[in-house]
Each structure stands twice: as structure tokens, then as C-alpha cells.
Amino acid sequence: MTEDSLVSIDIDLEADGKQFGNMKVPMSTNSAGWSQYFIPIISIRNGDGPTVLLSGGNHGDEYEGQVTLMNLARNLDPTEIQGRIILIPMLNKPAAMAGTRLSPIDGKNMNRAFPGDKDDDITGKIAHFVAHHIIPLADIVVDIHSGGSSMHFLPSVNMHDLEDQEQMSRMIEAAKAWGLPYVFIYEDVAGSGLLPSYAEGLGKITLGTELGSKSQFGPEMLKMAADGIHNLLVWAGIISAAPIDTGISDSEVVAGDDTRDYIMAPCSGILEPLREMGDVVGVGEVIAVIHNPELIDGAPYEVRTETEGLIMSRRSNPLTAQGECIATLVRPR
Q: Could you write out the DSSP letters of every residue in 188-212?
């Protein structure tokens, strides 16, 4: 049974054609006691077929998905598809407009807010509406991420390790169709409430991505996003066309399945990476040092690995606080 929501939508998701509209989220501000916050949503439908939900801007400082989905919404003709595509280019629009990971309105992380609550602050209201009124419509859910302001990533399609092996197999098949170098199976080390976790729990074919970072934003990463979405839509049977050759014949499936693979800074300071993404390291290797700018006559702190594997990501911002992730290791699955 669909839960009631205070959020409304001004397009008909069951109608054929292309529609641009908004999710309208009630809120109250100092300048307007009665107001709504508009979040763009687009429906492109042509007859019966699978439904794909494409979301970007879950974290506001990750722009690859936002730009790719805005371009797709403008350029895709409904006659080119069979089925339905629902696009939410800026799921956390307040954060996207501020260029921040978290919403500047309530300080919350959209990707820790699912399934939300209809009476929550704005982030929870948005999550609740999407969880109960949009995701259930979809056969495939794609949430496009990058490293944002804090991390660099090797390009990957990602997912959790699921008990349902049939669902997991289909998700890996879909991920490989995207055409990125890696399929990354990850652990939640920073809390629950993720959009992908919620969609996976509903049995959806659920994919995330990690496409570079804010400082790597540019034509190469945008092409990886656009080509991958095209290939996924071909795989799903929504687009009748040839897949785009990304140069990757078979994505390598890797996993960071040990919490120690997610290396957190043991102290605050200025991070100096000594190894780069793509390097393979062993247990006990020094992959970075952290300088104390207040004690520059002392030796920097050595950060050593506790597991072995390929460096999948590393911190992009040298100024680092204790407990922040500075690198991720993965191994072939």
C-alpha cells in the first residue's frame, strides 16, 4: 500500500510522451510561511515496457549525474524508447544549488535519509516521496555518484553484496553492460539509509556509480556517464540500438568487503598520498603520511594498510580531519 505524502507532483507518470515537471515539497521559511520547494522530475514514456529511474545530485557536489540527466531529458525523443524513463537530475536540489554534499536547509545527507518520513524535514520528505511513490514504479534504479569534493575514484558501477543471488547476478550483468573498468561491491561504513539499499531491498536492479570527483569533472567523465546510461537502456530493452563501445570488454568485479579496506585518517593534518589509485598494495604498506602543520619539526604520521588490494579511491582534499576516509582497497571477487 502506497503511503500518503505531503509532497505533490505536477506530471502524470502514466501518460505517454515527454513531460517536464516538479516534485513540490512543502516548507516554511522566514520569508514565506507557506511555500513549496520545487525539484525537477521528467517522465519519458512510450507504451509498455520496463521502467528505469535515473537520479543524480543525491549529493549536491557531485555533478556528473546532474548534467548527464539534464542533457538526456532534453535530447531523448519518446519515439526512441519502448517503456518509461523517470529522471530526477537533482534529487537533493538544495545541496546541488549550494555545491555541498549535505542540504544547507536542514544539514542532512539525502543518501542517509531513506525511506524518510512524510513529516520529516525537507530531506526526509523528499526521500519519503521517492521511496514510496517513485522507486516502486521502477524495474531498474540508477543513482549516479562521484567522489564529489572529498574523494577521487576509479570509474565504477557499484552495488552491495546481496543474499538474493539471482538479483545479484542480474545487477552485475547490468553493471557490466554500462562499460566501466570496474564493478565495485562495497560495504556501508558511514551509516544506513542509502537510496540504493532501499531499492535493493525492494528487489530492484539497483546500480550506483562512482565517476571521478569534483576536480575531475569534465568531458571524459560525462561521456562515461552518458555512454553507460545508453548501454544500460539498450541492455534493458528500452532503446533499440547498438551499445556504445567504451573500450571495456568485461568490467572487473572487485569488492571492499572488510571494514579495514576503508582507511580512515588516524589524525588530523595535511595528507600526502604516497601511492596512487590503481596501485596494488600489501598489508602494512605506507600509502600516505599526514603532516602536522603545528609541529613541522616532527616526522609526519605514517598511514599503513591493514589489508591488501588495489587502491580504488583516495582522498582528494589534502586537508584531512581525524576519522575521514583517505583511501579504499578492493580485491577481485
A: --S-S--HHHHHHHTT-EEEEEE--
Residue environment code for 100-118, b if the CB has 16+ CB neighbours within 10 A, otherwise e: bbbbebeebbbbbbbbbee
Residue the block writes with cell 545508453: 230
Q: Establish whether domains 8-253 and 259-332 are of one fold.
A: no
Q: Is the peptide bond before 115 cis (omega within 30 degrees of 0)?
A: yes
Domain 259-332 matching CATH 2.40.50.100: the answer reads yes
**Cell triple for 8:** 505533490
**Which amino acid, one-letter code, is at 274?**
L
Q: Could you report the per-residue pLDDT of 262-307, keeping only the tens digit for each?
A: 999 999 999 999 999 999 999 999 999 999 999 999 999 999 999 9
Supply the DSSP symbol for 148: T
| Sequence-ordered strand ranges (E) for 188-231 | 205-210
CA 177/CA 250 separation, integer angstroms: 9
Task: Given CATH 3.30.457.10, say whether it is the number of domain 8-253.
Answer: no
State the residue for C-alpha cell 521502467.
51
C-alpha distances (whole Å) from 293 to each of 268, 274, 279, 297, 320 are 10, 18, 28, 9, 12
Tell me which DSSP letter residue 13 carries: T
CA 139 – CA 199 distance, rounded (Å): 10
Domains in the chain: boundaries: 8-253, 259-332
Residues 104-157 have pLDDT tens digits of 999 999 999 999 999 999 999 999 999 999 999 999 999 999 999 999 999 999
Max distance between CA atoms of the chain, in angstroms, equals: 70
